[in-house]
């Protein structure tokens, strides 16, 4: 079987080499690019992200990435957001009191973690995987590497619409419960860094690759 | 469940080799950094730290190579420090595959560089590393003084105030190294850890003085979120990381 082709979106977001290497390690043919056609054609698109919500959103917008992501999702083509690449999929991010618009794929706001715990939330934490999660299959009890000061702490998805299957939400806890991962049809995202989460992270990426 | 205490082996890299001495002197060879990084990854290290202990630019290139080779194959967070002075130095390390950079002397000399680096790359990218020692100098209120040049030069700067300022300026983490304890293997300086914990809420890595697994719980009780050591991992038995984690777990703290 041909290797699934994965594009890691290249828009100047910090260290993305480990994401590229990790995806290669678990069997993908990986390209680091911002070429429209390649981004749209790939079997899977990975959107990394580090730093500030507003800066990441601005950088993505400057290369038209939100439209590409929207088109892929509309066409049922898998997209995986990581860290701030996860956060920007929600409605908005509030950092230092300033709100920035996100992509609004999911309801909710990215807000500061509680002040009474050590922040940034940095290190290996446990998760409570969604039932029937594909990403966490076989690694439900593992720890993953997080590094962030903001998170989505409330999930307000309208599940009264019968025709829509509810997204699978995985939670973690640091001072408060927050969303560690979402799986929603072709669109998935993790607040932690699977590419930095050792064997458990490799398995999560493998689970994603195998779903492409 | 909660966040696990991180156990971090530190590799002091000089001209492409890992070295380690006592109180920063009498360096002895401890092996190939890429090989050691692999070994520690397999042994359950939660993160790795490379400190480039050389100053020459030729050796700096060697360190970049070492970082690149390690980042290709080891999928846990990698921090690199030693000689980081500017935003550009951080950018170069990130390009090689480092996840974080640590800054020491350059931040003491010009604290604004912290704002510059974290403004561009985010807080999570920058670790403030400081070498502190106990002092009788009455000008240093806390009794802990910042040193530079591997502990050989005092600065008269209060280490506790410095940690508070660096956190306010935006560092994402503090690596607190006790010069008095470094390399002695007699245990961490828990008073110093407690004093820093008291003034900041950023993650705190305790370093200096670890000699036995039983030394670690005291550092965590004093407020450390992570613990860093070199000699006892380089020269100890291969399961030393597991032994350290077991000691931490036995004391009631979560580990991975």
From TrEMBL, chain A:
This is Imidazole glycerol phosphate synthase subunit HisH. It is found in: Cytoplasm. IGPS catalyzes the conversion of PRFAR and glutamine to IGP, AICAR and glutamate. The HisH subunit catalyzes the hydrolysis of glutamine to glutamate and ammonia as part of the synthesis of IGP and AICAR. The resulting ammonia molecule is channeled to the active site of HisF. Pathway: Amino-acid biosynthesis; L-histidine biosynthesis; L-histidine from 5-phospho-alpha-D-ribose 1-diphosphate: step 5/9. Its EC number is 4.3.2.10, 3.5.1.2. Keywords: Amino-acid biosynthesis, Cytoplasm, Glutamine amidotransferase, Glycosyltransferase, Histidine biosynthesis, Hydrolase, Lyase, Transferase. The active site is at 83 (nucleophile), 193, 195. Heterodimer of HisH and HisF. Residues 7-208 form the Glutamine amidotransferase domain. Its main location: cytoplasm. GO terms for biological process: L-histidine biosynthetic process. It catalyses: 5-[(5-phospho-1-deoxy-D-ribulos-1-ylimino)methylamino]-1-(5-phospho-beta-D-ribosyl)imidazole-4-carboxamide + L-glutamine = D-erythro-1-(imidazol-4-yl)glycerol 3-phosphate + 5-amino-1-(5-phospho-beta-D-ribosyl)imidazole-4-carboxamide + L-glutamate + H(+); L-glutamine + H2O = L-glutamate + NH4(+). InterPro entries: Class_I_gatase-like, GATASE, Imidazole-glycPsynth_HisH. It comes from the Bacteria. GO terms for cellular component: cytoplasm. Pfam families: GATase (PF00117). It comes from Nesterenkonia xinjiangensis. GO terms for molecular function: glutaminase activity; imidazoleglycerol-phosphate synthase activity; lyase activity.
TrEMBL record, chain B:
One of its GO terms (molecular function) is lyase activity. Keywords: Amino-acid biosynthesis, Cytoplasm, Histidine biosynthesis, Lyase. Its EC number is 4.3.2.10. Pathway: Amino-acid biosynthesis; L-histidine biosynthesis; L-histidine from 5-phospho-alpha-D-ribose 1-diphosphate: step 5/9. Coiled coil: none annotated. The active site is at 12, 131. Pfam families: His_biosynth. Its main location: cytoplasm. Transmembrane segments: none annotated. InterPro entries: Aldolase_TIM, His_biosynth, HisF, IGPS_HisA/HisF, RibuloseP-bd_barrel. One of its GO terms (cellular component) is cytoplasm. CDD domains: HisF. The keyword Amino-acid biosynthesis applies. GO terms for biological process: L-histidine biosynthetic process. It is found in: Cytoplasm. It catalyses: 5-[(5-phospho-1-deoxy-D-ribulos-1-ylimino)methylamino]-1-(5-phospho-beta-D-ribosyl)imidazole-4-carboxamide + L-glutamine = D-erythro-1-(imidazol-4-yl)glycerol 3-phosphate + 5-amino-1-(5-phospho-beta-D-ribosyl)imidazole-4-carboxamide + L-glutamate + H(+). It comes from the Bacteria. Belongs to the HisA/HisF family. IGPS catalyzes the conversion of PRFAR and glutamine to IGP, AICAR and glutamate. The HisF subunit catalyzes the cyclization activity that produces IGP and AICAR from PRFAR using the ammonia provided by the HisH subunit. PANTHER family: IMIDAZOLE GLYCEROL PHOSPHATE SYNTHASE HISHF, IMIDAZOLE GLYCEROL PHOSPHATE SYNTHASE SUBUNIT HISF/H IGP SYNTHASE SUBUNIT HISF/H. Heterodimer of HisH and HisF. This is Imidazole glycerol phosphate synthase subunit HisF. The gene is hisF.
């Amino acid at each position: 079987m041909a290797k699934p082709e994965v594009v890691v979106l290249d828009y100047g977001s910090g260290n993305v080499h480990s994401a590229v290497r990790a995806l290669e390690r678990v069997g993908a043919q990986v390209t680091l690019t911002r070429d429209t056609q390649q981004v749209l054609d790939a079997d899977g698109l990975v959107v990394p992200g580090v730093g500030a919500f507003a800066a990441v959103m601005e950088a993505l917008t400057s290369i038209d990435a939100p439209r590409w992501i929207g088109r892929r999702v509309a066409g049922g083509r898998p997209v995986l957001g990581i860290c701030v690449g996860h956060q920007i999929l929600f409605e908005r991010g509030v950092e230092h009191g300033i709100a920035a618009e996100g992509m609004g794929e999911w309801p909710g706001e990215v807000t500061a973690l509680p002040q009474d715990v050590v922040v940034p939330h940095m290190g290996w934490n446990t998760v409570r995987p969604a039932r029937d999660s594909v990403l966490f299959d076989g690694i439900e009890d593992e720890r993953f590497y997080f590094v962030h000061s903001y998170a989505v702490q409330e999930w307000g998805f309208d599940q009264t619409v019968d025709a829509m299957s509810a997204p699978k939400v995985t939670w973690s806890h640091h001072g408060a419960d927050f969303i560690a991962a979402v799986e929603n049809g072709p669109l998935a995202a993790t607040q932690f860094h699977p590419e930095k989460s050792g064997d458990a992270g490799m398995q999560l990426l493998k689970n994603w690759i195998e779903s492409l | 469940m909660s966040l696990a205490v991180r156990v971090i082996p530190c590799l002091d890299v000089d001209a492409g080799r890992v070295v380690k001495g006592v109180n920063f002197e009498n360096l002895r060879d401890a092996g190939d950094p890429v090989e050691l990084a692999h070994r520690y990854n397999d042994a359950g290290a939660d993160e790795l730290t490379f400190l480039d202990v050389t100053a020459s630019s030729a050796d700096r290139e060697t360190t970049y190579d070492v970082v690149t080779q390690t980042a290709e194959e080891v999928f846990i967070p990698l921090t690199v420090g030693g000689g980081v002075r500017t935003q550009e130095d951080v950018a170069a390390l990130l390009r090689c595959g480092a996840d974080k950079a640590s800054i020491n002397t350059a931040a003491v000399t010009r604290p604004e560089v912290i704002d510059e680096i974290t403004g561009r790359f985010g807080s999570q990218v920058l670790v403030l590393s400081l070498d502190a020692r106990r002092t009788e100098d009455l000008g240093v209120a806390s009794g802990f003084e910042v040193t530079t040049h591997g502990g050989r030069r005092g600065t008269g700067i209060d280490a506790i105030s410095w940690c508070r300022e660096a956190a306010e300026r935006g560092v994402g983490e503090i690596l607190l190294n006790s010069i008095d304890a470094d390399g002695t293997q007699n245990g961490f300086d828990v008073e110093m850890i407690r004093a820093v914990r008291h003034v900041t809420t950023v993650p705190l890595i305790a370093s200096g003085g670890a000699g036995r697994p039983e030394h670690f719980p005291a550092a965590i009780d004093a407020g450390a979120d992570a613990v860093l050591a070199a000699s006892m991992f380089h020269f100890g038995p291969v399961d030393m990381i597991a032994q350290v984690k077991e000691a931490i777990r036995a004391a009631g703290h979560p580990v991975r």
